[in-house]
Design a protein that fits this description.
alpha/beta; Immunoglobulin-like; 4-stranded mixed sheet; about 25% strand; binds copper (II) ion
Length: about 140
């Protein structure tokens, strides 16, 4: 019986480890940019935006994976989102879009499956992020 209980306890410990296995990545808003502006996470991980005084994080229409949920944070408030669908998500800061404030979240390890869709996107704020994303993928050797 004691052995059985010990077995159960270590199973419990394993489960909490895997439940806590999802990572949390923090993106800090600075004056006119996000730091880091490109982050790579695994499905189920969480992205948290901090220092969001006067900033927002808003996904750009047509620049997130098919079937993924768009987001639009409240201006000036910190925000968090868990992303499950692999692919690249391009977002902007609405008040500072003209300064190029925005970023990309890559979910998954390989080349984002929606990269061609991103390249075809016409949003001017989003387009500059596609170039930065391609440079990032090159630098990391992701093909
Ligand atoms: Cu901003």
């Amino acid at each position: 019986m004691k052995k059985f209980l010990v077995g159960l306890m270590s199973l419990g410990a394993l489960l909490s480890v895997s439940a806590a296995g999802a990572a949390e990545v923090v993106v800090n808003a600075t004056v006119r940019s996000f730091d880091p502006d490109i982050v790579q996470i695994q499905p189920g991980d969480k992205v948290v935006w901090r220092n969001m005084n006067s900033h927002s994080t808003t996904s750009i229409a047509g620049m997130i994976p098919d079937g993924a949920t768009a987001w639009n944070s409240k201006l000036g408030e910190d925000f968090a989102i868990t992303l499950d669908k692999p692919g690249a998500y391009v977002y902007t800061c609405t008040p500072h879009a003209s300064f190029g404030m925005g970023g990309v979240i890559i979910v998954g390890s390989g080349k984002p499956a929606n990269l061609d869709a991103l390249k075809a996107a016409t949003d001017n704020n989003g387009k500059r992020w596609v170039k930065k994303l391609e440079r990032y993928l090159d630098e990391k050797g992701i093909k």
